[in-house]
Amino acid sequence: MTPIDPATDRRPSADRRPGAFALLRFAVELVALFSLALWGWLAWDRPWPALAFVVGAPGFAIVVWALFRSPRAVVPTDRVGRSLVEIAVMGAAAVAWAQLGHPVVAVAFALVAAVTGVVAARREDRA
C-alpha cells in the first residue's frame, strides 16, 4: 500500500465547509430566484399566467444558470459568456423588484449581486 500525499489528495474531506462568501453568494442566487417567482405571482391579475410565471421564470433562470454559469456548467464558456449570463439573471431579478414598485430593494439587490459577482469572477480566475 502506498502512502497518500496530502497535497495531492483530491478526496472531499469532512472539514471542507463552504466559507462565508460562498454562503452569501448562494443566498444572493436564492433571492434572485425568489424575486423572479414573486414577480411572476404579483405581476399578473389572473391565476394561470401567474402560476406559469411563478414556475417558468425561476425555472428558466435555473436552466440557463446550470447550462452556462454554474461551476459544473454543461456548456463551457469563457469569462465574458459567464458574466453575460450572470448579468441577465441578476439583472432580471433587480428589474422585477423595480417593476413591483420597490426601487430601493432593486438597487440594493443589484449592488450586492454586482459585488458578489465581481468577487466570484476574480476568485474563479485565480483558481
Largest sheet: none
Q: Helix amount, in percent?
A: over 70%
Average predicted confidence as pLDDT: 89
Number of helices: 4
Count structural domains: 1
Overall spatial form: globular
β content, as a range? under 5%
In whole angstroms, the N-to-C terminal distance is: 32 Å
N-to-C series of helices and strands = HHHH
Structural class designation: mainly alpha
Question: What are the segments in which pLDDT stays under 50 over at least 5 consecutive residues?
Answer: none
Instruction: From the alpha carbons, calculate the radius of gyration and give it in angstroms.
Output: 18 Å
Beta strand count: 0
In short:
The chain contains 4 helices and no strands.
Can you tell me about this structure?
With 127 residues, this protein is mostly helical. It has one domain (29-126). The protein contains four helices and no strands. The protein has helices at 20-42, 47-69, 79-99, 103-126. It is globular and about 60 Å long. The model has no long low-confidence stretch (mean pLDDT 89).
Can you tag this structure with a few keywords?
globular, mainly alpha, 72% helix, single chain, 127 residues
Give the secondary structure arrangement, pairings included.
Layout (H helix, E strand, L loop, with lengths): L19 H23 L4 H23 L9 H21 L3 H24 L1
